[in-house]
Amino acid sequence: MKKTIIASLLLAGAALQQAQAQNITQQQQPFQGVIGKTLAESKESWTPPIKAPKGAPNVIWILLDDVGFGASSTFGGVIRTPTFDSLANNGLRYTNFHTTAICAPTRAALLTGRNSSRVHMAGFAHTVLSAGFPGWDGRIPSDKGTIAEILRENGYNTFQVGKYGLTPDEDATDAGPFDRWPSGKGFDHNFGFLGSQTDQYKPDLVEDNAHATPDGRHLNEQITDKAIFYLTRQHKVAPDKPFFLYYAPGATHAPHQVAKEWSDQYKGKFDAGWDVFREEVFARQKKLGIIPANAVLPARNSSIKEWNSLSADEKRLYARFMEVYAGYLTYTDHEVGRLINYLKESGQLDNTLIYVVIGDNGASKEGTANGDIDRQLFGKPLSEEENIKYNLAKIGEIGTPDAVEGNYPLGWAQAANTPFKYWKQDANSEGGTRNPLIVFYPKGIKDKGTIRTQYGHVIDLLPTTLEFLGIQAPEYIRGIKQDTIQGTSLVYSFDHPDAPSQHHVQYYYIFGSRSIYKDGWKAEVYHHPDFTDLGNAGANQPAPSSGFSTDVWELYNLNTDFNERIDLAKKYPEKLKELQDLFDAQAKNNNLYPLIDWDDVIKRRIHRTADAPKTLTEGIKKAAQGNQ
Questions:
Q1: Can you point out the beta strands (E) in 408-504?
Q2: pTM score, two decimals?
Q3: pLDDT confidence bin for 573, thresholds 50/70/90
Q4: Which residues form the Sulfatase N-terminal domain (predicted)?
């Protein structure tokens, strides 16, 4: 009797959801019948129930956080990711896919299929990092509908677990409003956190439209359990109804926290240091065909010390940071594996289209030159010697719940980004913006285990998904006329490895660093880095510029120089001018102006509080703390 009652309630809930979805559609479509004074004089009109296309596959988007191009074994790295290896070996590897160089803009672009500044997320949804301009206010407008909104109106159930990162700080309380929570952007259910980062054992956890109490387990385990719960419940009640799952763990963003059973698997594996790591990964990438056979490894960035010049204590400390990071990534792969195993065991995997984006930007430079264990860096700045001594005293805390910031030193960021220069936040560089993509669909991928080199960007996944499912982008969502989707579907490349790229132009901008791509050519500006984030590591860099007037543009031909080693700006000034003009046009068309760098943010915020953040990294951390 109890089981019958529960089943009835579940069926009633599903019927209510379908009725609500049908009501939305009815609001968009005018009544097609006749209304007279009496029933005899009237003609009924019924809107048919919303159903997904017959045989439509389930869809899963997996987005990892702060993973460099050369970290995972799937793309030549030495960190084991067997789940991703398996998906790629039975699907497609895209090696020329791009993000925006930092988390919130990537996520906004991914979910909407439109450029980040066009959807008002050129920066962040955090108060301390946003600005009162259309491209910068951190509030995605309703005319920029998400993939979840589109699929829900086409008969899908929609779920989100993990990091969302797009809710304005002032809305991120249980009082709402909730229109910019996941539930307001098309997700039937959500479980995770709203900010940029959170403690993995004491997360700022939300479920649906309220904060929830963490149970003490690692967040990766909790979100995987919740995803499996959502999918199990749906499969029992409506086995023929497809689902969309957005699985976005906080991993491998700081804090790097993971059980020692995972990090200890890498004991001693990184004692040879980051220079050897880069060379080993570079060789593996060539062997796998991930990079050209004639590629040349760029020189170590000048802000990073040669490994062999470090003291024994530094080597021991820095190696431990990387052991923890590697264990964290392998553990994350394991949790994704649990989700994949559930689909396999429940008979759903063969009809599930899966995208895995390995990182929302390049590897993180936010761990400083010496690594970051806790929030001591918010206090009085330490000298390099003091910082190393402090971290050595706490080396046993790295990776534990006590390491509330936990992030590896800068040298490992470039190593994890092999074969590129630079790292997260640097929108000028492939090291900041190029992240691997896996496409997996047993029923639809014929050329399994092969590589695709077509140019792609996160705005492409929404139109790729819609084309593959046979769903048209809607003109209206909930009665609101929709803006143009800007991404380019990648379906043309699924069965045609040699097809020319169809995504021709793409701009990038993060707090001053910027670039513009067109058909293999790329013009870029490093701007000035956030030197205070790098501590003494920035000593060898040129002095910061003031504003944008002294910025120096560089020019690269990625067709022959994919990792940006040879600056052609002086050789081809006409091409550089062409791309500069194109950047200007893109900026105007996508709400990017006014250009804002970190100095501008500080100047605009400093008068509001004496505790204003002094660096971009500190601002992100303070914003994240505010959500906890």
A1: 437-440, 450-452, 456-457, 476-477, 480-481
A2: 0.91
A3: very high
A4: 57-471
